Structure formats: C-alpha cells, structure tokens
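User: I've been going back and forth on whether these two constructs are worth ordering. Before I decide, could you fold them both?

Assistant: Sure. I'll take them in the order you sent them. The first construct and its structure tokens:
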Amino acid sequence: GKHRSGSLMSRIDAIYEEIYTNSASPSVLMDLNAIEWNINHETSMRSVQDRVGALETSLLGKNAEGTFKKRIAALSTASFGRAEIPVTPVTVPADTLIKVALVTPVNAKELKVGDTIEYQVADDVFVNDVLVFTKGSRGEGTVTKVRQARNFGRNAQVEIDFKETKALDGTYVTTFIGEESKKEMTHLAMAAGASLAGIAVLGPIGVVAGAFVHGKNVDLPAGTELYIQTQHETTLFGVQTTYDSAAPFQRDAEAPAAKADSTNDQSVYHDAA
C-alpha cells in the first residue's frame, strides 16, 4: 500500500521476502496456502492473483479492492474468524511419511535419465495436530536411471530421485523413498488387491525375483499413489488445526533450512530383475 525507498534491488528483495519467507512474520504465500486449505482442503499452484480472486468469490461473493495483504487479511477473518492465522513452529521428524500421486506418468519406454517427474501431495500431513504438508502441494523428481525390459525375465527399472517436497510454509524438505515408504507401498499394493507384479513395482527390490518368464515394462499412469519420506528432522511453520489452543506466530523463531545431502537414496520403480 506504499512505495518503498532504496535501490531497485533492495526493493525487489523486500517484496520477495514478504511473499516467500517466514523470518519476521508469516509469508504472504503461507497465509494464502493456509486460507485455501481451510476452505478447499487442498492447495493449488495457481498465481496469487487467481487464488485470491477465487477465494474472495467463494467466501465473500465478489472480488475486493486494495492490496493483496489487505485482501488476504480479510480472507483470513472470513475463513478462520480471526485476522491472524494460527501459525506455529513445529519440528517434522525424519522418516515422516508423505503420500503422493504422480502427475507425470512413469513409463520406462518413454523416459530417459534427466527427465523431470512431477508429483503432488495426495493427503494432508499433520504433526501433533499441526498441518505441515497440504494435499495438492507439488514436488519434482529427476530420473536417474532407466533400464528397459529384456529377455529371460529381466524386467524394466526406473530410478527417481524425489529430491524435495514443498511444505505448507514454502520450505523445501528433502524427501526420498526409503525403507519406511517401501513398507507402506507394499501394504498399499496388498490392500488394493494388486498382483505380485504390482507389489514388485511398488515394493522393495527382489520381492518376486524370478517370477516372470518375460521381462515386464514399468508403466505407472498419472494418479498412481506412492509414499515418500522426509530424510532429516526439519523445523518449519505449520497451521494449528485446534484453533482454541493455537499458538501465536513466534516472531523470534526461525525455521532452519532443510539440510542438503549428496548421499540421498534414490527411489526405485522396477519389476524384480
């Protein structure tokens, strides 16, 4: 609602910090994510302008005027009953499971190393009643290995590094497919009545080694659900979903960035070789 002073770069940095970072107060992006989740029970990847307009139409019946900050504050009051969103710091433990769904199909015949695999969070993730990952939040993985199906039962294999998944507050959390997520995917396949081949695709290496005479292709359509897990304990900000006990935003609390780790395990989609 006002012009900033200073150099062009410093003004751009200030705008970026207000929209994306949570150092002094909740970012515009986090507030918007929280409001959108509270109304739609998922978040979208549309622009701030489109999301604010859609939420205003849904909650207020028309688009408002003024700055985005003022409009988002009005949306917060209409959604949460208070202008201040119940944000609180929370520590997400290592190996926290996240259910995701593929946006990009995974087909060994069509992929090559370096291709990007898009996915989105399929279910909300809570830590002690604090929302930390929202349904609809996107992530990107990278194909690191492709092996085509071959004779003598040697099945196709695709390895994907799931790298990072965006949390509610915009923090990129390091994620991968480890032992905990592999166990969950095996249970998911069994509960769905999947064949042994399906379990081999989703589960640990060698579940049904030698079960096939002919090699099978890896072909997972968009919408296929799987599990990934957090690699490190990570402190970030979430939304307290029990409002009467919600903690106010801690202005002096800072969320450390998730640690990078070059030894990150890679996920493996395959039929047992």
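The second construct, handled the same way:
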Amino acid sequence: MAFGKHNLEPQIVEEETDEENTEETDVVEKIENDDEKNIENIEKSTESISIQEGVAETNEDDEEEFEEVGYDDRDMPISYQATLKQHSRLVNTIHIDPAGSRMVTGGLDHEMRLWDFNSMDDTFRSFRTIKPFEGYGIVDAKFSLTGDRILVASSCQSAKMCDRDGHTICDYSKGDPYLRDKKNTKGHTHAIMAADWHPFDGNTFITSGMDSTVRIWDVENDKSQKSIIVIKGKAAKRPAVSAVAYKNDASVIASGSDDGTIRLWNAKGPFVVPIKNKMAHEADKYITSLSFSLDGNLLLSRSWDNTLKVWDMRNFNDPLFKYENLPNVFEKTCAMFSPDNKLFMTGTSAKKGSGESGRVIAYETTTGQVLNNIDLADGSVVKLYWHKRLNQIFAGSSGGSVAALYDKERSHKGVLCCVKRHFTSKIESFVSADKKVYAPNSLPLFKEQTPYSLKEKRAQERYNYAKSKRPELPNEAKTKGSKLGDAYTQHLVQMLRKEAYGDESDPRAALMKYAKMAEENPEFVAHAYKRTQPVALFETGEYTEFEVKRHKPE
C-alpha cells in the first residue's frame, strides 16, 4: 500500500457572531492523492475545525508562512504498509523497546504477543503468545526504559511485571473491595484502566482504575502501592479514572475520568487538591487518552464525545484547538504526538455495518491544520505508536490487526528487516504407511553384532555355567554370581527318610508289604464283611453270561 504526497488547499469561511465578536473559521480540506503514475485520484472527506480567536488566524500571509516552515507530509513514513494479523479481537496496546528490536501487543482476546523484528520473516508471526490474566483483556503493556521488563495491566484489579521474554516476575497486590476508605487499600479494588512508566525512573510506574484512584508503585514492592491519589467527583460521586499520563519532566501527573474532568496533580504530592481541575469534555463520557508534548507545554485529550482537544499548560482555561466529529466508541482510542513534536495524530472509529474504515488523521502542531488522512481497511483505529528510532508508525485496529506504516528511505530496521526476509517452507520426506517395507538386513540371519551388543552378550554368557564351562559357585549368600538355595539340605533329608521308611518310589511294593499282615491280623475292613462276605472276592478277568450282556456295547 503506497501513499503519495498530499497537497493541502484549505478553504476558509469566516462568520461573525454576536456579543463576544468571536470568529470561527471552517476549514474544508480536499486532499488529493496522486501516485507516481497518476493512476488514482482519491478525494478525501472534509474536516471541520473550530479554532478560537487569537490562537490561529488563517489568511493569505499565514498560508505563505505555512508553505515555508510547515511540516512536509512526505516526512511521514507512510509510503508502504505491512499488516501483522495475529490477534482475534481489538488491539488495545502497542509498545516497542527502546532498541527497536521487540514489540509487545495486547488486546481483548486476553493475549499478549511478543514480536522479534530480528528473526521474524514476511509472514509476520509473533514468536510468543501469553495469557497473563486468564479471562481478562490486556489494557496496557509497555517496555521499561531499559527494555528488560514489561509492565502489563489488564481489566482485573492486579498489574503484573514480566521480563522481555514474557515470563512473570511478580504480581502486584489487589485491594480489599469491602473497605470504604480507598486510602487504606493496598491495591486496586476494581478494574485497572490505564498504566504508564515514570519518564526517567525505571523503578516507578503508575496505574489508574475504576475505583476512582491513581496509584504510584515501586517496582520492587509488590505488596502495596507507594502513594495513592483518590479522585472525588461532584456530589460525592466516584468517577472512574480512564486515562493517566506523566509529564516528560515527571513534575505533573494528569488524570482523566468519566465525568469529563482533567485533573493535574503535583507528582511530589501531597495528593489532596489538584493543581488544576478542568471540565474538559462532556460528562458521563470516558476520556480515552491523555498525552503530553515533548516540551510539556501541550496536552492532548481524546474522549467519547467524539472530540480531540489540545490544551496549553500555560493557559489551561480554554483549549488551543478543538476537533469535532471524530467518531470514538472504544475506551482506549489513542491520541499522541510525533517523536519530534511537529505533529499530533489520532484514530477514528468506524460505524458497525457501514462499510467504512477507521482513519489515522495527522495535524500540524503549530497551525492545527490537517496534514494527512489515512484510511485503514481493518475496522476502527484504536491504538497508535510512533517509534523514534525506527521511524515507523504502528496502528492497532478493532479487527485484531496491527498496521505498520514505513518508508524505505526514512525508516530503519523494524518491519524493513522482515519484508526482506522471505519465508521458505521445509519439505520433509515421508514413507507411506500403506506400503510394505522389506528390510532383509533386519532379520536375525543378517544381523551383525555391534561391539556394544557383543559385549553384553558375552557378559550374559559368563553367568551361564553351561556355556562358560565353569563349576557352580558355592552357596555363599550376598556374593555376586553365587547360587542361593537348600539343595544340599534337601538331599540329606531324603537320605535320612529312606533309611527310616525305605524306598517308597514303587507304590505296589509298598502295599504288598502289608498283604501278609492283613491276612494274619485282619483289623482294617474285615470286620465289616465278616458275616456278609467272609471270603474276599477279587477281580479274575472272567465274566459270566449275564455280565457279558451287561458290559456289551450297544
């Protein structure tokens, strides 16, 4: 996907209002996209921008100044696009380590994926998939300043610290939801909605949640937070803190809640009353993103009221720029500054079933003019990340894909390394199981004894008395190779029995010894037959006629 240079021709319409005599300028921009071959001419949609009086007046002189010192859209790395499709649902967070070698993404599919640009090919597959919180979507996942740790926050009450390979280091404590005073809790009692690292202290990070608190944590202490800020709304309401951000010099903490209020806190405390408290957006609308500029003078705020506002920290009463009609239906829709602070951008949501796609809209910081308008095909644009070292823009969408925008001349490494590394499939040889395999060498006749098997065979033959031709070992217990048993004892017992009772191997001879004794002294069964059969009758082998008929087979 290639993007050509966009020529901006702003049309200005001036209208006078009563009482305050303010001037509102409606700028309608027609963005023509001409590629190198002049094949396609795409007319972009119009954008309405309301700019306050005295901040940015646009006339012919300003247009000439814009052409001379303005930001050139060709400097944006948007010439080519690569799509990383691995998540199955909305991508909430994208972050890359400072070296630009690894990327972490997370979404509502409960998965956190790790990507390695140095080993990934043009198929763009993550090398590791983790579910840090089973059943909970990933809200934020960010590398530390050194890139050796990953802060992971989900929609449950606990945050997690992982190493750069995704292995868990520690889980931070949850709070007791039954305690009314949130200052006495040791962790979040409701879902976490945002998390961020300290700008230069690698041992400190911050979280905010639906329990109306902002908590500052020490990395080494997983038992309780270091400090806590309790947000109190009007009429004793407890608004959910949906966005939180550190100023780049770590002097201010900005929090945005669902009552439409932006609160600025002194990062050193005490966290009792905010420095500034501004009703910035509509009530009952989540503030989905807060982002400070590089110099800390500007603050971006994005909300569910479909607006993007730019605030001057030196004059926090009214917004510097206000952009309306920017659809936003997701809790993590992002707004951010570029690494060089020359422009800022945000993503828009697409209406379900409308056939439209989300857009990435870039604005110039100094003039507030629309610089670029990029359509992305895969649903709404939720998360944006621009890495300074790689000079590549990553956009997470509601369809689960991550679009990587880059330029072959201005971008470095990152996705460029992957598109040059083509995937090669390995063809593995296989044998069909339906065919018979004849291997005559596996038969016992053709087998050759290997040195190892021959050694085992000889060791076994050594214990075989017949093959080794050696006498049996004496009957010594607990001796290797000795023959245990009582053969000699049995032999002595048998010899003594023969001497006492004689050889009884022939049963007939043993009975005949008692034949003469039975005739002389009939004391066994003779008394029973003394009257009925005094003379014993024995089998002679001869049969009478009656007995022959009885025994004749039928």
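Notes on the second construct follow. The domain at 6-419 is CATH 2.130.10.10 (Methylamine Dehydrogenase; Chain H). Confidence is low (pLDDT under 50) at residues 1-71, 427-431.
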